[in-house]
Amino acid sequence: MVSVTKPSTDLFAVGRETNVHAEVLDNAVLLGLTVRTSGDARIGGDLMTAGRHITLSGPIDGDVYAVGGAITLEEGAVVSGDMWAWGDEVHLLGEVRGEIEISEARPESGRWVWARTVLDLVRRAAAAFATGLVAMWLLGTVARRPSALLRQRPGAAAGLGFAVTLALPVVLIVTLFTVVGIPVALIGFGLYAAGLYLATPVVAYSIAGAAFDRWRPRTSRVIVLGAGVSLLTVLGAVPWLGTVVVAVVVIAGMGGLALACASSDG
Fold first, then answer.
1. pLDDT bucket at 20, cuts 50 / 70 / 90
2. Confidence band (pLDDT; 50, 70, 90) for 74?
3. Disulfide engineering: 1 pairs with which of 5, 17, 71, 129, CB 3.0-4.6 Å?
4. pLDDT, tens digit, for every residue of 223-239?
């Protein structure tokens, strides 16, 4: 959850739940499954927002562009500019002083399905990108080691990743049936879940890194990670192919992580 409680000049906020409780002097971009602005959260410029549930309670001095499932302008809220709202349900209980354009799209509408698909892709890419950035920030070069090993030893990573992905859950389940093994199994499940989550940024950085090292070797690591994550997210959304891509990413990513752990132990 993202909660903004301090005033800012411009604001860009993304989270599963995005809540704004402070003034924004200029423009704001708010993305999330749930987006809320409180009555004290004045937006000094334009507001662009997208989410399944959008609730606007504070004053907005500029225009509003909203795409969501349910969009609500609460009673007492004032939009000084125009308001453009596109969603399943749009409730304007507050005041809009400019022009109003509302498009209520049915869930089965082709354009609405497409919009939701794009929003879901953006959410997934942002989550994987953020995970990779946090890992780099916390662990430095250690976080990039699985990607490097994946590029150096792809065969070993694939074999080890296949074994770890399929066999480790079985081993942990068996361990649960022993009293002493319960804490070990719980820790193991936690590490396994973390590995699944880290698999995408590991593979993304490995693939994009190989390409950028050949064509533009001095490119920022952040850009490399973003390019790789974007590529895998788009490929993962392709029917049929996406299932194969996801499976390969999980196995390869888990293999890179396992190789990094094995080499550090050695």
1. very high
2. very high
3. 17
4. 888 888 888 888 887 77
257: left (phi over 0), alpha (psi -120 to 50) or beta: alpha
Amino acid at 52: R
Q: How many residues would you count in the chain?
A: 266
CA–CA gap between residue 89 and residue 87 (Å, rounded): 5
Contact criterion met (CB below 8 Å) for 35 and 54: yes
pLDDT in tens, 96-125: 999 998 876 554 455 555 666 677 777 777
The pair of three-digit structure tokens given for residue 212, joined into one six-digit string: 């950028």
- Identify the residue whose tokens are 């002097």: 25
Could you tell me the two tokens for 101?
Answer: 């354009």
Q: Return mean pLDDT, the chain.
A: 83
Q: Would you give the DSSP letter of residue 53? A: E
| First-last CA distance in the chain | 39
100-104 vs 64-73, strand pairing mode: unpaired
| Packing angle of the helix pair 141-152, 154-176 (nearest 10 deg) | 120
Residues facing residue 56 across a β-bridge? 37, 73
Report, as an integer, the average pLDDT of 210-224.
82
**Residue 6 CB neighbour total at 10 angstroms:** 7
Return the H-helix or E-strand segment holding 56: strand 47-56
- Is residue 167 classed exposed, middle or buried when 0-12, 13-18 and 19+ CB atoms within 10 A define those classes? exposed
Structural contact between residues 29 and 49, judged by C-beta atoms closer than 8 angstroms? yes
